[in-house]
Amino acid sequence: MGRRSRKDGIPETLLEALEFVFQFIPPWTSIPLAAVGFFLIVLFWDAQVKIPVLQIFGLMFGAGFAIICLIAGWKGAEFRRRQLVLLQADIDMDWVRGLNWRDFEHQLAEVYRQKGYEVEETGGGGADGGIDLKLFRDGRTTIVQCKHWKTWKVNVKPTHSLWMLCSESTISSRS
């Protein structure tokens, strides 16, 4: 599970936590959890709030929880499907070269997770030229910039820009 941003609200945090859970327990369990959660929230709200106009919020909160559960279950199932494809793949350099940049970042993140790191995938919606993965272990943070190029060598420019980025973040964190 990645590190939470301070901007994340309760729904985002709940989705992230449930998605993590459904990576390890069967994702289909999200369906009964959504149904039970919906009814418990609605019943609790109705018991606590006696104003009819406000009772509609119980339905909305219950429905929101159910939707978050179902989305998390779906994401857990997708995670398991990707893991199965990875385990069944004949992994060699041609397989790695066949990945797009986003899948390459995800697979590299999984390798670090298997090595015991807590991984935050920070790569955005495109080639951002910045930090793609943050690794956390033993109180230390390591940053990774993924380069999925078809050549065997990475030139100096991306290496230098990552070095400068690291230097700036070290200076700013010490100030």
Task: Give me some keywords for this one.
disordered C terminus, 61% helix, three-stranded antiparallel β-sheet, elongated, 175 residues, mainly alpha, 2 domains
In short:
This protein is mainly α. The chain has helices spanning 10-21, 30-48, 52-88, 93-97, 101-114, 156-174; strands at residues 118-121, 133-137, 140-144.
Textual characterization of the structure:
This protein is mostly helical. It has two domains: about 10-90, no CATH class; about 95-175, no CATH class. It is about 60% helix and about 10% strand. A three-stranded antiparallel beta sheet has the order 1-2-3, covered by helices on one side. The longest helix has about 35 residues, at about 50-90. It is elongated and about 70 Å long. The protein starts with 9 loop residues before the first helix and ends with a helix.
Show unreliable segments.
Answer: 171-175
Distance between the termini: 29 Å
Structurally, the number of domains stands at: 2
Strand order of the largest sheet: 1-2-3
Based on secondary structure, the structural category is mainly alpha
- How much of the sequence lies in strands comes to 5-15%
Number of strands: 3
Integer-rounded radius of gyration: 21 Å
Mean pLDDT rating? 79
The H-and-E topology, N to C, reads as HHHHHEEEH
* Helix percentage range: 55-70%
Outline: elongated
The major pleated sheet works out as:
3 strands, antiparallel
Helical segment count? 6
